[in-house]
């Protein structure tokens, strides 16, 4: 017997897209995989197959196999019409890691019959990637993950017979796990598109009504994603992820107004995707509506102009030794710090202890076309990292130094996450974030033994997960709450 599958759910208004869990039983899936699941099995059955970047595929005649015939009959029963081809087939497909299927419409005609509906039955679980993705779905893009036994079913035509452009779809790149499918292409006279599928409409409406948080990912640490997902789940916010490497710029426009958008990834690809997704009313951590297009800085210059305490600094623009000597005097003497833009985790921050070191390093910087910032070295300082969301510091920790290095790093010792920095440091961190026109910042502050403090930089985006995972500070919750409140105020503009 076939166990009762879960209700059919409608996922989008356009295309008419439905999903049902447990549509194929474990036994059916086992049978299909054993009979046709790879090249060897297909070859044994005398079935021709092809292999390319969309995986290994083969046409499986439906009538020859009672299991396939039963699955096809159930799909036709859901649709209320049958495939009118003389010899209907399932298309088997197995994607290898790295395989994808580019965006397309299933728009075909055979004889007089149109490809009215497509039904995919997933035979395996894809752990990461491999979703069937509908970038033009309305009211918002939808992704169906490959999960064993699941059915995805959609109409390629509208009820009036016209081709539904919202049915554009692709397979996202399979990154981890397995993706094997059988797809039933249901050809019929175009009038069949009038058919209605009986589905539980409620979940799609509820989801459409709830707030969406779209996260642009490109190799972001798993911990960051976990913290964001957890915060969304706790607030009933729908978490969605866009992989920059799978993004198709022909298919996507800005997100609908009121959508929350955040890009924890720092790659250029992720920046461009965020720009494409941002539009009127989309809510981000930028104070300005077009903030995603701006790059300002360097931090020391902007912060200094706003009256925020920064270490004394000057541009490393020259190899002229006379000028460089004056720079060193101006910075209070050796050692000094040389900082190149773009690094993270302390990479690109150099301590210069001698004029010989300065001259030789500057010759190299100039020849490489780089212009570092030179700044005063603050000895015996405590390095604080403050995570600012909006007008508050919501997470903090103290960095430590290792022997034989001057740079600092975070630790996994909860003690470093307990005592908040002094109130004036918290105030500087908030002011520094605001000065850079963002509402999220990982602010580095040095506190000298004298009590004076200096803001080094504001990282945006920044790594914040450890404040949650080691320190227990609910940084993710503060981030989502901030964006939701901003959306409610109509703050995305
Ligand atoms: O494998 C998928 O998710 C989509 C496949 C597809 O669109 C097709 O075979 O036409
Ligand atoms: Fe397709």
From TrEMBL:
Pfam families attached to this UniProt entry: 2OG-FeII_Oxy_3, RimK
Keywords: ATP-binding, Dioxygenase, Iron, Metal-binding, Nucleotide-binding, Oxidoreductase, Vitamin C
Gene Ontology terms, MF aspect: ATP binding; iron ion binding; L-ascorbic acid binding; procollagen-proline 4-dioxygenase activity
Residue ranges constituting the ATP-grasp domain according to the UniProt record: 300-488
Record bears the keyword Metal-binding: yes
PROSITE patterns: ATP_GRASP (PS50975), FE2OG_OXY (PS51471)
Name of the protein in its database record: ATP-grasp domain-containing protein
Organism: Polyangium fumosum
């Amino acid at each position: 017997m076939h166990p009762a599958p879960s209700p059919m759910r409608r996922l989008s208004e356009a295309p008419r897209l439905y999903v049902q869990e447990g549509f194929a039983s474990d036994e059916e899936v086992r049978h299909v995989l054993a009979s046709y699941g790879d090249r060897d099995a297909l070859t044994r059955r005398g079935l021709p197959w092809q292999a390319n970047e969309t995986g290994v595929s083969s046409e499986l005649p439906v009538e020859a196999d009672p299991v396939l015939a039963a699955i096809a009959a159930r799909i036709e029963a859901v649709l209320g019409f049958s495939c009118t081809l003389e010899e209907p087939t399932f298309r088997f497909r197995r994607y290898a890691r790295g395989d994808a299927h580019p965006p397309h419409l299933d728009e075909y005609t055979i004889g007089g019959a149109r490809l009215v509906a497509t039904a995919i039955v997933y035979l395996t679980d894809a752990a990461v990637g491999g979703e069937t993705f509908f970038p033009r779905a309305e009211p918002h893009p939808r992704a169906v993950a490959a999960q064993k036994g699941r059915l995805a079913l959609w109409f390629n035509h509208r009820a009036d017979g016209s081709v539904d452009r919202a049915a554009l779809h692709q397979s996202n790149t399979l990154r981890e796990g397995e993706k094997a499918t059988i797809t039933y292409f249901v050809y019929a006279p175009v009038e069949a598109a009038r058919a209605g599928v009986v589905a539980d409409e409620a979940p799609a409406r509820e989801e459409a009504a709830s707030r969406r948080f779209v996260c642009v990912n490109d190799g972001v640490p798993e911990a960051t994603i976990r913290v964001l997902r957890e915060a969304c789940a706790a607030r009933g916010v729908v978490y969605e992820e866009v992989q920059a490497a799978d993004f198709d710029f022909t298919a996507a426009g800005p997100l609908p107004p009121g959508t929350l958008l955040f890009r924890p990834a720092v790659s250029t690809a992720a920046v461009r995707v965020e720009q494409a997704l941002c539009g009127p009313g989309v809510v981000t951590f930028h104070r300005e509506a077009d903030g995603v297009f701006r790059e300002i800085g360097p931090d020391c210059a902007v912060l200094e102009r706003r009256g925020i305490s920064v270490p004394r600094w000057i541009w490393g623009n020259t190899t002229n030794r006379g000028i460089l000597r004056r720079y060193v005097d101006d910075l209070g003497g050796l050692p000094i710090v040389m900082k190149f833009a773009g690094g993270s985790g302390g990479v690109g921050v150099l301590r210069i202890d001698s004029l010989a070191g300065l001259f030789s390093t500057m010759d190299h910087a100039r020849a490489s076309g780089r212009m570092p910032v030179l700044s005063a070295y603050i000895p015996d300082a405590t390095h604080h990292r403050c995570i600012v969301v909006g007008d508050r510091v919501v997470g903090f920790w103290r960095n430590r130094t290792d022997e034989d290095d001057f740079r600092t790093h975070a630790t996994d010792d909860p003690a470093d996450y307990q005592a908040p920095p002094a109130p004036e440091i918290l105030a500087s961190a908030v002011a520094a974030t605001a000065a850079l026109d963002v509402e999220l910042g990982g602010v580095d502050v040095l506190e000298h033994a004298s009590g004076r403090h200096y803001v080094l930089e504001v990282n945006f985006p920044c790594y914040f997960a450890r404040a949650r995972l080691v320190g227990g500070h609910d940084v993710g919750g503060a981030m989502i709450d901030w964006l939701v409140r901003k959306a409610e105020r109509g703050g995305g503009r």
